[in-house]
Amino acid sequence: MKNNAIIFIFFFIFLSPLEASIKNKIIINLENTKNFSFNFKQVIDKKTEKGNCIIQYPKKIYCQYDNFNKKIMVSNGKSLVIKNQKNNVYYIYPLEKTPLELILDKNYLISKIRKTESRTVDNKYINFTLEEKENLINIFFDINTLNLVGWQTEDIYQNLVVTFISSISYNQKVNEQKFILPKFNN
């Protein structure tokens, strides 16, 4: 019983401030981020796609996929368009109906991280599990750099979507034209 009390005291005194310090540093990184670009690898229902993206807060994203269809994904903050450039097929969704609405909202992420306990995964990642609007989002930060390295969600078809990001560049000059939704051909 005495050993359990010592372990509890050790955890409370030494590890709680460490977790708070890591959480605060992640929050500061997010607060200082206006935009970031990255390469991604996305796995949806055993299918892997790769490409690159730019996220600009609040709620804007532009992604080019390196696939046969040369797919692009764009959000202007209100709508999300996925366009297959090879055959000009497109899909449009209200951003609020997708988990990306939450991932692209820096203020939401910061407020949720402040209230959420983190966990360490494989001594490599800090993970926060966020629940909102029937969405469950696992967001991951590198344990050393505290940079965002990916997330896990479900798409609108309830497929598990795991996104890994790498080669991150922060607060670069961004062409605002990228976030204009593509023209739709009738």
Written account of the structure:
Helix content is 24%, strand content 43%. The protein has 186 residues and is of the alpha+beta class. The chain has a single domain (2-179), classed as outer membrane lipoprotein receptor (LolB), chain A. An eleven-stranded antiparallel sheet has the order 6-5-4-3-2-1-11-10-9-8-7, with no helix packed on it. Helix 1 (2-31) packs antiparallel against helix 3. It is globular, with a radius of gyration of 19 Å. Residues 1-18 have low confidence and may be disordered.
Shape: globular
- Give the overall pLDDT as a whole number: 87
Instruction: Tell me the β content.
Output: 35-45%
Low-confidence stretches: 1-18
CATH class: Mainly Beta
Strand order of the largest sheet: 6-5-4-3-2-1-11-10-9-8-7
The CATH H-level superfamily is Lipoprotein localisation LolA/LolB/LppX
Number of domains: 1
Radius of gyration based on Cα positions? 19 Å
| Tally of DSSP helical segments | 3
How many beta strands in the DSSP annotation? Answer: 11
Alpha-carbon distance between the two ends: 73 Å
What is the H-and-E element order? HEEEEEEHHEEEEE
What is the subunit arrangement here?
single chain
Class per helix and strand makeup: alpha+beta
Secondary-structure arrangement, i.e. CATH architecture: Clam
Helix content: 10-25%
Instruction: Indicate the CATH topology.
Output: outer membrane lipoprotein receptor (LolB), chain A
The major beta sheet can be summarized as:
11 strands, antiparallel
